[in-house]
């Protein structure tokens, strides 16, 4: 393929792999274009996009040259090539790489070196992916904005005043600006889907345990690691590489190397005859008018393609969901963070101190068994609402944007579809993702739905029945093929 750097960077991973196999593009060509884009647009840690904690261009260049040779050999003798051979992959900093820093943005972890690779890093490398950069996150991945004293402010390529979301904000920003082809992410309350929604990219929260994590917090049943990309097919490609049993995570399950869309039809016709639930507010979330309109447009396109759109009204409130998740965090993540950062509290970001305090307060009032009962109530509501439908469609976010440098210690004001202004006590209530971490056996795919009035993308979530990964990719591929997310 002859073309400019922009033309090369516009290729999906799936298309680039086809070019590699045909000999019309070399992995080193794609990497050179990617590095040039990073050098041109990433900028500084104050006013730039600032998506990376570290670049690894030297080792990436050597890996790309080796991939070039491997494709030459494969074309000569028909040998097999690994699933991601030659594709640039940016990994989230928390996904440790042996011999590299593993600081998670915290002063308490400054200078810490990873002794081994995170399981998803092992799998990316085994599949021939080229890790050329590591992406930013907020401290300990505990915010839905991405800024820290360690790494500065990460900004949204679509609107530099806005955050790309978090905690996988660097991943979303890098994908949206063409600085990587694929990216790894993680999700405990929306940390994959929120940045996907705000950056016009695709993010997948797999069922709990489907993608292996790093002990001991891999055992937290709200969390999970996952893929981000610019297309649904690329997200499925990386999900297949990351998924499956791993000896380091005894909660991991299922076969490795199987794409979640492997047995699914693709294209708009794939949704014909499906019953897809539509819930615009998940109870009382005050959804911004542009987000509501874009979600309704996605539903109309699915209906025109032959799906039956079924109105759904979940009985939740933002207060109920916030109480439920913070009771959970108060017994697991909050104490882990407090122990890790003991003695360095003065150096924590305001959002981190607030998270630890909110989690502790919730745990003081709700025991762990009571927390499990709160979880069960949400799960029961969702199971009832999804009875008789194949998947649920809902917005990813209720708010159009978050400020790139925001801390939101006093909550957030949101304007609903009727023009009313709501004050939410916690800014996490501006995202519609955490109910599906409570119901974490449900797969959820976040895909673009259009553009908001403030120049920031919007997104929708496709929620499947427990463990039904194929369905969310089937619907997501149809939404993409229908052009629903085109800004």
Automatic annotation (TrEMBL):
Listed SUPFAM superfamilies: Amidase signature (AS) enzymes
Ranges of residues in domain Amidase: 29-472
InterPro entries assigned: Amidase, Amidase_dom, AS_sf
GO molecular function, one term: catalytic activity
Family per similarity comment: Belongs to the amidase family.
Name this polypeptide is given: Amidase
Organism of origin: Leucobacter insecticola
């Amino acid at each position: 393929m002859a073309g400019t750097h922009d033309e090369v960077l516009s290729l999906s991973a799936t298309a680039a792999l086809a070019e590699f196999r045909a000999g019309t593009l070399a992995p080193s060509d794609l990497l050179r274009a990617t590095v040039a884009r990073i050098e041109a647009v990433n900028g500084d840690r104050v006013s730039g996009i600032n998506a990376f904690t570290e670049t690894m261009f030297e080792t990436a260049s050597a890996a790309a040259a080796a991939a070039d040779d491997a494709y030459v050999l494969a074309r000569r003798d028909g040998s097999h090539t690994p699933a991601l051979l030659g594709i640039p992959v940016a990994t989230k900093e928390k996904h440790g790489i042996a011999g590299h820093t593993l600081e998670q943005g915290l002063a308490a972890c400054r200078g810490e070196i990873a002794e081994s690779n995170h399981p998803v890093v092992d799998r990316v490398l085994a599949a021939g992916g080229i890790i050329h950069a590591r992406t930013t996150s907020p401290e300990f991945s505990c915010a839905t904005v991405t800024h820290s004293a360690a790494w500065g402010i990460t900004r949204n390529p679509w609107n530099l005043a806005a955050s790309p979301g978090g905690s996988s904000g660097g991943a979303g920003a890098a994908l949206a600006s063409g600085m990587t082809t694929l990216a790894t992410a993680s999700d405990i309350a929306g940390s994959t889907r929120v940045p996907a929604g705000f950056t016009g990219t695709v993010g997948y929260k797999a069922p709990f345990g489907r993608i292996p994590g790093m002990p001991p917090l891999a055992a937290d049943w709200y969390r999970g690691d996952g893929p981000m990309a610019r297309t649904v097919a690329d997200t499925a490609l990386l999900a297949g590489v990351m998924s499956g049993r791993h000896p380091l995570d005894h909660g991991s399950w299922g076969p490795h190397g199987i794409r979640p869309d492997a047995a699914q039809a693709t294209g708009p016709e794939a949704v014909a005859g499906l019953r897809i639930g539509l819930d615009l507010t998940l109870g009382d979330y005050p959804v911004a008018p542009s987000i509501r309109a874009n979600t309704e447009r996605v539903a109309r396109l699915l209906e025109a393609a032959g799906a039956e759109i079924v109105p759904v009204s979940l009985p939740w409130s933002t207060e109920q969901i916030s109480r439920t998740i913070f009771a959970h965090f108060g017994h697991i993540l909050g104490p882990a963070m407090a122990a890790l950062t003991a003695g360095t509290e003065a150096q924590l970001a305001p959002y981190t101190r607030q998270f630890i305090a909110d989690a502790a307060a919730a745990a003081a009032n709700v025991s762990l068994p009571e927390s499990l009962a709160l979880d069960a109530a949400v799960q029961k509501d969702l199971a009832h609402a999804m009875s008789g439908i194949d998947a649920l469609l809902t917005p990813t976010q209720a708010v159009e944007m978050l400020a790139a440098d925001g801390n939101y210690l006093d909550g957030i004001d949101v304007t609903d579809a009727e023009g009313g202004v709501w004050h939410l006590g916690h800014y996490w209530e501006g995202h519609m993702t955490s109910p599906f971490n409570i119901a974490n056996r449900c797969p959820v795919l976040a895909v673009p739905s259009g553009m908001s009035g403030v120049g920031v993308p919007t997104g929708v979530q496709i929620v499947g029945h427990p463990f039904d990964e194929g369905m969310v990719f089937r619907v997501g591929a149809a939404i993409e093929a229908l052009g629903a997310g085109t800004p």
